[in-house]
Design a protein that fits this description.
The structure holds two protein chains of two kinds. By secondary structure, chain A is of the alpha/beta class. Helices cover 35% and strands 28% of the residues of chain A. In chain A, the strands form three sheets. In chain A, strands 6-7-8-3-9-10 form a six-stranded mixed β-sheet, sandwiched between helices. In chain A, strands 2-1-4-5 form a four-stranded antiparallel β-sheet. In chain A, strands 12-13-11-14 form a four-stranded antiparallel β-sheet, covered by helices on one side. Classes of the chains: A alpha/beta, B mainly alpha. Bound molecules: adenosine-5'-triphosphate and magnesium ion (MG).
Chain lengths: 308, 253
């Protein structure tokens, strides 16, 4: 089986702007792959090239071995996409919207109806099937995008920030649905800004910045590269951080609190507390801020010499 | 001939107007009742016969063409543009439909709307004036060709439009002048020879003339030549449609 996605030196230029700069990525069949990176990194552009909504300026991309330009029909047939922005036909009831999409993929009317009902049940909005898209709540709209991506039973499911702005329950529902699909062999490409989500779901993640791949690795390895910050509130305010040799990467005073940057907050906190009380400081409160994706990202780009 | 996918898109496009008969079929019916009332009943008696036909009968073929092609054009332009505007055109675009199928579905559905409107206007006209069909085959073939031609042009309009105003502009500044100088309301024979020649650059002239031949048996030009010209134009426009959709003009970044 060829890889689910394989790109070679993929380039996209919008005028002077290089949205993708020679991106070479390989996502294996059956993998759960994350695409991370700050706003404007090129994630959506990358995805849009695969489904034919953006024309590539250079390089090549294949989906299960089908070139996205030359064999676009085979490539598109394999993909189910839940995009970042709502792009749903608002004229028809959502049940019919799903049936239409299935129809474009060559699925006959009766089967399309069956599948539409099935995926509406999967995402939990079956009761709303006769309503139009505009009448759904924001969360239900997200659910519908997932249903539409699933109705063609794709081998490659692409989710572009599916959990942006949704509540905890829906986020967990989505995670469960998508994990099940992946367990049953569907390849998943997910973009997200939530590191927790990537950690929990993805086998591997790629970090993209300014259209370039910074790194491809497992979320665990990635988190290990990040740092935590321990915030300590002391009885008496400090003017300057005390010397914390051996484990503090950096230390500073942040709004009256002592901030200590360390590799692993949980492991280091007890030692930090001991050191502080040994130094005669009374600790009132302690908080560990886990590294956000953005922090890891900043670390990564800075440590790798910086990309601007 | 068509894949399931192409048929699904065609059906969706047809449902889009069939399910809103008040917006689709009522306006042309009402407009034409007004035309016939004014030109047939109020003014009809004061205007001389043209080529031996009462004025209302003479303009009826033109009104049918006018309604049919403007509806075919508008439907295609609006449907494509609206899909781009709300981005739901992504639904077919991200599907395994060939570019030819996409064009066939949009143009086919829009042309169908034009034909239905043409039939409605004919039926309305029948109430006001006794009209028969002299050459049914010529009439049918020409109606299909002109509706496809203008649906194909509408698709191009829909791809290039940047906002809803552009659609209005196309209608007001391109379609309307073509129609009004398209010999709908007069016979080419009344024009001085230079203007008659200039008129021949207007595709509308051939359309109206051929439909008039199909209905009344009267024509200023040679019907077979007209049909040939129109067919040529239609094939060229469809080829351009497919090329534009394939290149993603107005559709992809
Ligand atoms: N149609 C367009 N025309 C011009 N520039 C564009 C277009 N689409 C995207 N860009 C630019 O390309 C770059 C990448 O955008 P893209 O949407 O792929 O980023 P992203 O990683 O998905 O960001 P986000 O996390 O905000 O969704 C950005 O600088 C963006 O402004
Ligand atoms: Mg994006």
């Amino acid at each position: 089986m060829p890889p689910a996605i394989e790109t070679e030196r993929l380039v996209k230029e919008y005028g002077d702007l290089r949205a993708l700069d020679e991106v070479s990525l390989r996502v294996e069949d059956g993998e759960f792959f994350g695409l991370l990176g700050p706003n404007g990194a090129g994630k959506t552009t990358f995805i849009s090239i695969l489904v034919g909504l953006v024309r590539l300026s250079g390089g090549s991309a294949r989906v299960f071995g089908h070139d996205v330009v030359d064999d676009y029909r085979e490539a598109r047939d394999a993909i189910g996409i839940a995009p970042q922005e709502f792009n749903v036909d608002r004229f028809f009831p959502i049940e019919e919207v799903l049936m239409h999409k299935a129809g474009y993929h060559g699925i006959t009317h009766d089967e399309a109806k069956e599948r539409a009902h099935e995926v509406l049940k999967t995402v939990g909005i079956y009761e709303k099937r006769e309503q139009r898209f505009d009448w759904l709540s924001g969360g239900m709209k997200r659910r519908l995008l997932l249903a539409r991506a699933l109705v063609t039973d794709p081998d490659l499911l692409i989710l572009d920030e599916p959990t942006a702005g949704v509540d905890v329950e829906l986020r967990h529902d989505l995670w469960e649905i998508v994990s099940d699909l992946n367990a049953n062999g569907t390849t998943v490409l997910l973009t997200t800004h939530y590191i927790e989500e990537a950690e929990r779901l993805c086998d591997r993640v790629a970090i993209l910045d300014h259209g370039e791949v910074v790194t491809v690795e497992s979320p665990e390895d990635l988190m290990d590269r990040g740092t935590d910050t321990i915030y300590v509130t002391l009885e008496a305010d400090l003017d300057a951080p005390p010397a914390l040799d051996g484990y503090a990467i950096d230390a500073w005073i942040d709004a009256g609190r002592l901030a200590v940057q360390v590799d692993d907050g949980g492991a280091v906190a007890p030692r930090l507390l001991r050191d502080l009380s040994d130094g005669g400081h009374e600790v009132v409160d302690l908080e560990i801020a886990r590294t956000s994706l953005e922090d890891i990202f900043v670390d990564l780009t800075e440590r790798s010499g910086g990309i601007s | 001939m068509w894949s399931i996918g192409g048929r699904a898109l065609f059906k969706r496009e047809v449902q889009r107007f069939v399910r809103r008969p008040k917006n689709t079929f009522m306006p042309p019916a009402i407009t034409n009742v007004l035309y016939f009332a004014v030109f047939g009943i109020v003014l009809g008696g004061r205007i001389d016969e043209i080529a031996g036909f009462p004025y209302v009968l003479f303009i009826l073929p033109g009104l049918i063409v006018l309604g049919a092609v403007s509806n075919a054009f508008e439907n295609a332009a609006f449907s494509i543009f609206h899909g781009r505007w709300n981005e739901y055109i992504d639904e077919p675009l991200t599907s395994p439909l060939s570019y030819t199928e996409i064009v066939a579905a949009y143009v086919g559905a829009s042309a169908l709307r034009g034909l239905l409107v043409g039939v409605i206007i004919g039926a309305v006209g029948r109430i006001f004036t006794p009209i028969g069909i002299k050459h049914a085959a010529v009439l049918a073939v020409t109606m299909v060709i002109v509706c496809v031609l203008f649906a194909g042009l509408g698709l191009i309009g829909g791809l290039y439009a940047r906002d809803f105003d552009d659609l209005t502009v196309m209608n007001q500044f391109i379609l309307r002048p073509l129609v009004f100088f398209g010999a709908v309301f007069y016979s080419l024979d009344v024009l001085p020879s230079t203007w008659r020649t200039v008129s021949l650059l207007n595709p509308m002239v051939y359309m109206v003339d051929t439909i008039r031949y199909g209905l009344l048996g009267y024509s200023d030009l040679t019907p077979t030549v007209s049909v040939g010209v129109l067919l040529g134009a239609t094939v060229a426009v469809l080829a351009l449609d497919i090329w534009l959709v394939k290149r993603g003009v107005g559709l992809t970044d």
